[in-house]
Every structure is written in C-alpha cells, then in structure tokens.
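lol ok so funny story. i was supposed to be doing the assay writeup but got distracted and ended up predicting the structure for this chain instead. priorities right. anyway since i did it might as well share w the group, maybe its usefull for someone
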Amino acid sequence: KDPPPFDPAGDPAKQAATFLKGSKLEALGGAKRVAISQFRVEFMVENKGSASSSSSAGWTSSRSDITLVGVSDEMRQAITDQLYDRLVQDLTGAGVEIVPYETLAADDNYKSMEKIFRRSQEPVGMQAGKSVFVGAHGTPYYLTNDDKHIGLGTALGGISTVQPQNIEPRIAESLQATVLRATLSVKFADMKSSGGMFHMGSSVETGEALAWVPDQTQFLFVTPDSGKARVTLAKTILMPNDALTLKDITTKGEKATQLAANIVTGLFAGGGRTERHYEATANPEAYSAAITQYGEALESALMAIVQPALASARSVAARSSGREL
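and the output, tada:
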C-alpha cells in the first residue's frame, strides 16, 4: 500500500497528525535550552536485493543492485546545513535558547565520545546497501543503538565501550540543557524481493523512490533530569521522482539503457540465475530542492508537535511565578 501524499505546503499540524508519532512529550516541560549533540542526515547511495526459489521447475536466483550518482559531497553538506539552520531557526522562534556548539564541544561528557565520532563522507555498510552520513556544518556524527539498520560489518567495526545513550543524559545535566539528537534518513530507491520454497521463480523489483525514511528519521530529546521525549517519522514521505533518471548498466561495453518506467524488475523462472545492475543519476538541482523543501516541511511538522509541549510548560511556569509574586 502506497503511503499517503505529503504536501510540503500543507498545514504542519495536519501533516504531523498523519506522518509523525510523538512519545513522552510531557518530558519537554520546562525545556528552555537545547544542546544539539547530533544533527545527522543519512543519504542512501547504494541499494541491493536478492531472492531465490526452489521447486520442481528448478532453482532460481535473482540479484539486483542500484547506485546513486551525480550527488557531490558539497551538495550533501549544503542540504544538511540548510536543514540544520532551519531547525535552529524554528526552535529559536519558539523561545528556545540553542547552546552554541563551542560550548557543547568543551563539555567533558561530550568529549568522552570522541572515539566514536565520525567526520568523513565515506560510504558506510548498511543492511540494504550503503549510506553516506553527514553532520551539520562539519560537526561529527555518531552511531547509536537506535541505528538498527546498519550492516553487520559496520556494527562489529564500531563496537565500543562508549555508549551515547548513557552519555547524553550526563551532557544534559552538565549543561542544564535538553540534548537533541536529530537523525534524518533519505533514500533514493526501493527493492522488493519475492521467491522461496515451492515458488516457480524469483524476482527483485527495483524502482526509484526518493523519500524520507520512517523510523530511521527521528528526533530524541534528553532532559537534564534524564527524561526522554521522542518524535519519529511513522510513514514514508515520498518526494517528486523527476530528480532521478534510471539506467540499466548491466552489460559492459554497450551503451547503458535508459529506463522509461520508474519500476524495473529482474526475473528468472524455470531454473537459472540472473543479475542486473542499475544506476540512478540525480539531477543535482532537483534532488537538492526536493530534499530541502520536504525536509523543512518535515521540521515544521515536528515543531507542530513539540511547540505545544514547550508552550504549555512555560504557561504553567508563568502562572506559578505569578502566584509566588
């Protein structure tokens, strides 16, 4: 079932009700300062899928992969920076003081995570392919126990005694500020596999799908008293597909075949093996414009959920202060 349409020009509160899920937002009561420990955008750059079948007709195997090209490191950094700046602007407009990164960077608790900090745009192995992670304005990013979609090799290579989920509350207490860990994820393709025992064939359906990814896109708030509030993207936000052009590059030495349809399928039935390789070329301007436009609308929807919790807390505090006077 296709996800509902997301209108970037629509009412943020209505979009929030459809696409976002908030948890324990009451923990934000009294939050007047926010320290952004991480603002990270994950850009998926390679997807792969496989399927097999076994039946009286024989054994089949289908494999497919697709790689994103045409997106530079500078473009990913610019997109991340713009989305970070917009979120800071929204929080500031809601009356929240943003702790300068220099203050955060000087905190001993934050510095204790140095061993797990990452700063490069080298592709990272994920369960479904590879991704490039980018921190806002060159700040480091880090992986946490919420990143359940990372690949086994990445997980094993990142084993450390440093556990961010245990350190973030200490940062919040030290700075007397709510720590915000923002992790956003954007994909460019979908893979759907079918096959199995007693099936006559196997297939991997490959299609372009520029979209914000649910669950992997979330905003975690950790308060000085160790309270936690979380806002998670619950449904896929599809963006315009005119930013990408698909090509079949399976056959070497021949001109790549441009695909007219958005969805392509690798299929082999009756015994045998097939493998296809595809490339998605991004139109730089359209790719950047779509992600920033829909990303900023997503952040507006986030504020539609968060701001009432902040405003309610301040209203209660103001009434209490008035009674004391």
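The two ends are 57 Å apart (CA to CA). The longest helix spans residues 284-324.
back to the writeup now i swear
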